[in-house]
TrEMBL record:
Native source organism of the sequence: Deefgea piscis
Recorded catalytic activity of this chain's protein: 5-(2-hydroxyethyl)-4-methylthiazole + ATP = 4-methyl-5-(2-phosphooxyethyl)-thiazole + ADP + H(+)
This protein's name: Hydroxyethylthiazole kinase
Domain of life: Bacteria
One of the Pfam families matching this protein, by short name: HK
Amino acid sequence: MSQVDLTIAELPFHLVADELERLRANTPLVHVLTNEVVQCFTANTLLAIGASPAMIVAEAEVADFAAIADALLINIGTVYPVRLQAMNLAIDAANAAATPWVLDPVAVGVLQYRRDAALAMLAKKPAAIRGNGSEILALAAALALNAEAIAGGKGVDSTMSSMSALSAAQQLARATGAIVAVTGATDYITDGEQTWAVPWGHPMMTRVVGTGCALSAVVAAFLADAPNRLNAVAAACAVMAIAGERAVECSDGPGTFVAPFLDALHVIHPVQLRSYSE
Ligand SMILES: Nc1ncnc2c1ncn2[C@@H]1O[C@H](COP(=O)(O)OP(=O)(O)OP(=O)(O)O)[C@@H](O)[C@H]1O
Ligand SMILES: Cc1ncsc1CCO
Ligand SMILES: [Mg+2]
């Protein structure tokens, strides 16, 4: 019987550089079905990094658009019945076109309606799942029908570290076939066997709304036509975390963080990333 290789290694900068170069060359069209809080920030984040966002949400349009987009994000942060219906139509069309889609299971440990919705989506095989510690623990527990372990999270915020959810992330990846990214002080990105650690970022990123939601959209962008999905998801996490660190240097707090964060995403360059490896 073959042993599962649970190696964890820090993501090297040259891989981030390669993935960023690929993304900028492709300028992927990202179909975004996200929550109502973070729409504009998510679109600006995608534009700053070099992707094209489109928030197409009508039931009558989502299938047609998912079929022509390069990647799809499904974020259940403010899900309600009509939106859920549209999300499932978009997922089915993306799957029919072999287009990668990402699930952001916002607050999945807090409410049964979205938990049921997320579990049904898992059966449709997301290419990646990106959540905070509480969300990944809750989703893994829900999938295993481990009822006591499901509850978790303070609304949309995590009460658990990413490290405490690492094993759940690996199990979730193995059970679903998705790349799982669990974010926090260190982000862990896993296919269930190999795991990249992304240790950058800053706590200020949790003091403005939507950095995680926007990261999930960036994960979708990096997954478009990705030859290596694990590296693509990890690079998305790295670029956001590095930009977050840089933005803090030019900000006084949450109110002045967002503008330098978008600027940092815009200027981050593969050549500069490669120089960190030397
Ligand atoms: N303590 C921390 N130190 C450094 N970076 C952090 C920390 N906590 C979160 N981050 C970074 O913030 C970003 C968002 O991750 P987080 O886990 O907060 O997502 P989230 O809870 O889903 O966010 P939201 O739902 O508000 O969009 C990631 O890039 C992550 O690396
Ligand atoms: C604050 C908030 N409420 C529902 S979704 C969302 C965005 C952060 O996940
Ligand atoms: Mg979130």
